[in-house]
Design a protein that fits this description.
45% of the residues lie in helices and 25% in strands. The chain is α+β, with helices and mostly antiparallel strands. It has a single domain (3-165), classed as Histidine kinase-like ATPase, C-terminal domain (Heat Shock Protein 90). Strand 2 and strand 3 form a beta hairpin.
Amino acid sequence: MLIDFHGEVSESRISEILGDVEKKLEATEEDFKKQRKVYNILVETLQNLYYHTDPFGGEELSDGEKKRVARFILGKAEDHYHVLAANYIDSDNIAPLKARLDKINALDKDGLRDYYKEVLDNGQYSVHGGGGLGMIDIARKSRNKLEYDFTEVNDDFGLYILKIKV
């Protein structure tokens, strides 16, 4: 296990995690190309956690915003890195996300490239700017299917778990 984070998702915390990851990757015997691939996938994954973790529970921050909590793990087994990201998601957002993930997983390398271009060209960007490119990019870079699961927490929220093999 290289990184195991559970806590509030914030810009400063994500920057700290990425700094830690970069140091740990540089300390490995891994070739530079694979280090960069893993790092870039982690950037996308952590950005998704930052922008798409829905506040769950009653805990509030000092500015009155609800606390957004997530889990992030980076590990290495044999010649593969494994990324696990988990966050709370509003139940209304589960079906559209599942449909997007299923579409991404149904595509091969060329299909992912074409879908990336299609999303890029359609001009429909979210308030976070990506328009759904992050998950496509993760699938393209990892060259593996995205494993995911949704667990019901209550009527309003689910827990979204994403597993990526690099």
